[in-house]
Amino acid sequence: AVASFKSQVCSPSLRERRMLAAMLRRRCGALRNSARSYGTSLPIPKTPAGSEEIFHSQMMLPKYSLSNKKWFFLFLACNAGAYGGHYFYLRFLMPANPPNPPRDPNQTRPEKHMHAVDDE
Description:
Elements: H1 2-10, H2 14-36, H3 68-93
């Protein structure tokens, strides 16, 4: 009785099996299509006869390569320009706040501070 109950509860129905099979077929088809599109449609060149020697990466210089001296000069020049521009703006271009007006000594002071908590 336990085995029959377990098989009824745990085994998927025929409809669920078909849906699972269709899902797997779709996934496998997608994998097949992606494997087909991998690579190139252009002809792959063949190596000439007698060229057994392989060129290693040290024989090919990078196109845009800077020496240490040039790189650090450029780095320091950029930093100097950034800091110099920042302080130039602060000193000459940014408007300064005007000074506070002088206090009137004859003005009466408030009895209670305007931000004080009301205890009443």
